[in-house]
Design goal:
By secondary structure, the protein is of the alpha/beta class. Strands 3, 4, 5, 6, 7, 14 and 15 form a seven-stranded mixed sheet that branches. It has a six-stranded parallel sheet with strand order 10-9-8-11-12-13, sandwiched between helices.
């Protein structure tokens, strides 16, 4: 089968690999019907993910059809349409039992697919702990609607949940890339008093204005003054940092009011500085880290109800055979690209 492979640091290549087989009773083999490219894939290429294993098939954003299931996956059968979770988790360790599935202690726990084991930018993928990591897609939800369930929407839903947003809050969201836009939809479900989106790209700012007219939009240059002018207590009540730029971590805490929640879901290419002397007395609560992607059933229910819809983010579609061109387009932000769908 065709599989897009992390050949070596800085080098990706489309290769012919054997079709995966079941290795454990809790495995499933999924025929991938639609996949996507994530910024995290680019981080692998740039060397920012040292745990990534050369030789693995890339990709952790995908949906598909169950081809084969192990004996210990009773809730799934061949032919079921499924969304694949970005994380592998056993469901039984201390962290899984408490909902912290990103920290699953299994050797393949956490972000494994497309990083430490073969992922889904391929015709087929083996999913470990499929009883935890696969969620049936409702019949009324298309592949394109469900594509971001297991990663981008899971991240946005989780970020919104841990930010503890109330109807009295003004939320500042830094970044209107794919993660930011999915997070924005989840934030709006909480019906906060106000939402401000900060984004450096004029194209992305226009996208937000056109699709979310109830949201205020600002550039990074003006965000501090703008936030002060449009909040009641010296800054945003909740700041969600989904940009991962050179200065966006600093903007996050600077734009927060005293005693605010600052939630960091961005992945950075370099260490960030926590200037405690400068922020002393602000009494900020920081929520950080990788997504705990255990909300997929609820996300798919919201998609079926029409309360979430991220299909507008899919601006381009490529066959798997042309995935090099898709990566080039996505990496260089050409032609108005937001997200690319890959069809095996």
């Amino acid at each position: 089968m065709l599989a897009y492979t992390y050949a070596a640091p800085g080098i990706f290549a489309l290769k012919d690999k054997p079709k995966p087989t079941l290795q454990h009773p809790r495995d499933a083999i999924v025929r991938v019907t639609l996949a996507s490219i994530c910024t995290s894939d680019l981080h692998i290429k740039h060397g920012s993910v040292p745990r990534a294993v050369p030789g693995i098939t890339l990709g952790h954003e995908m949906v598909g059809v169950v081809e084969e299931v192990g004996a210990d996956v009773p809730q799934l059968r061949p032919g079921d349409r499924v969304a694949v979770n970005v994380e592998t988790f056993c469901g039984t360790c201390f962290f899984c039992r408490h909902g912290y599935v990103n920290n699953c202690t299994d050797p393949n726990g956490g972000w494994a697919l497309g990083c430490r084991i073969d992922g889904g930018q391929a015709e087929y993928v083996r999913v470990p702990y499929a009883d935890q990591g696969l969620t049936k897609i409702p019949d009324t939800v298309s592949d394109r609607q469900a594509l971001f369930t297991g990663d981008l929407l899971a991240t946005g839903f989780w970020a919104t949940r841990i930010s503890r947003i109330t109807p009295e809050d003004t939320v500042l969201l830094l970044g209107a890339g794919p993660t930011g836009l999915c997070t924005l939809q989840c934030v709006l479900l909480k019906q906060p008093k106000g939402v401000i989106v900060c984004e450096k790209s004029p194209q992305q700012r226009d996208f937000v204005r056109q699709n979310y007219p109830q949201v205020r939009v600002v550039s990074p240059r003006d965000v501090r003054a703008f936030t002060l002018a449009h909040t009641d207590h010296g800054g945003a009540d909740v700041v969600i940092e989904a940009a991962g730029g050179e200065d966006t971590f600093q903007l996050a805490w600077q734009c927060a009011r005293p005693n605010a929640v600052v939630t960091v879901v961005a992945m950075y290419d370099a260490p960030q500085t926590l200037p405690l002397p400068e922020m002393y007395g602000k009494n900020l609560t920081f929520q950080t880290g990788g997504v705990d992607g255990c909300d997929c059933p609820e996300i798919l229910s919201l998609l079926a109800q029409g309360k979430l819809d991220t299909t507008a983010l899919i601006t381009h579609t490529f066959p798997l055979a042309e995935i090099d061109a898709a990566y080039d387009l996505f990496a260089h932000h050409r032609d108005g690209v937001i997200k690319v769908a890959i069809v095996p």
